[in-house]
Amino acid sequence: MKIAIVRLSALGDIIQSAVVLQFIKNFKKDIEIHWFVDEKFKGILKNHPLIDKLYALPLKEKHFLKSLKILIKARKNHYDAVIDLQGLVKSAVVSRILSRNNFGFDQNSLKESFAHNFYNQKLSIDYNENVFVRYLDLSAFALNADFNVKDLNFKKDIFYVDENLKQLLHKKLKLDENKKNILIHVGSSVENKIYPKTKVALLCKLIIQEFPDTKIFLAWGNVKEFEFAKDVVNLSAIDEKNIELAPKFNLEELMAFTKMMDLVIGNDSGPTHLAFALNRPSITIFGATPSYRNAYKTDINKIIDAGKKITNAKHIDKSDYCIMRIEEEDILSLAKEILDEK
């Protein structure tokens, strides 16, 4: 059996969607899986042991003709099923080009409801349902399988991590010199999902006061986040032996570094969700986005939010900065639960 999965973007969504791979392979080991992703994010899926073929489409670069040629060629694979985990019009069109036997969510289960017109088989599930439930239920629907979200508690690492790269980063950043290593992600693609720099600085100070032999690395992905991280270092007034800016990581390096961390803290964004994917302890900070939908809580993967009741995930208020109400001491309490246990 040969299937295609369509999940083009964005980073965090790809990270969370990829959990279906091990469920599918555990269901039937001989299923051949092809994955269609935007070229910008192919690094996160590169060399994945459960993906038999990876197709990178240059859609973000608006190279539509090149993308179409790739899809027409891939169509010759004669997929038994195509599963669109993204549920947008663009991903629905991609899935329809690949095969008429494509599976997606129905009209009421989508943010872009028009996408349902491109699916042959449609699943009805509340858009507000947890994303892992949605991805697993759609995959199970397509394969006539029975996937239980509770099995996430026993999942293996969702991504392949290069061991040589881990060793290089371990040596370069002298991780052995610290009793504990913490990675804090300061950014997000959406402004109101970012925990304020003054609060991040205070959180860092509280962590070092509680765990003096700890090293905090501040991760950044662009110039704006780099400046943000520099401000956090200055505002925290912590000795440089306890805090520093992480290097600019590519996706493979970010995965390797994340795998070596004792704790990852960050906003509701891809790099933070990567910790969950790699079975590393994490704290995800939520403001105006629904924590109940966008994450899965475990003994080592904690969630903190502003207590805002979000009833419709289709319509998020991007002017709502309730994330500012979250207290640094409450995040520290979660960090202590995790680090004291370790």
Automatic annotation (TrEMBL):
Gene Ontology annotations of biological process type: lipopolysaccharide core region biosynthetic process
Keywords: Cell inner membrane, Cell membrane, Glycosyltransferase, Lipopolysaccharide biosynthesis, Membrane, Transferase
GO cellular component, one term: cytosol
Protein name: Lipopolysaccharide heptosyltransferase 1
Organism field: Campylobacter estrildidarum
Biochemical pathway: Bacterial outer membrane biogenesis; LPS core biosynthesis
UniProt GO molecular function: ADP-heptose-lipopolysaccharide heptosyltransferase activity
Catalytic activity: an alpha-Kdo-(2->4)-alpha-Kdo-(2->6)-lipid A + ADP-L-glycero-beta-D-manno-heptose = an L-alpha-D-Hep-(1->5)-[alpha-Kdo-(2->4)]-alpha-Kdo-(2->6)-lipid A + ADP + H(+)
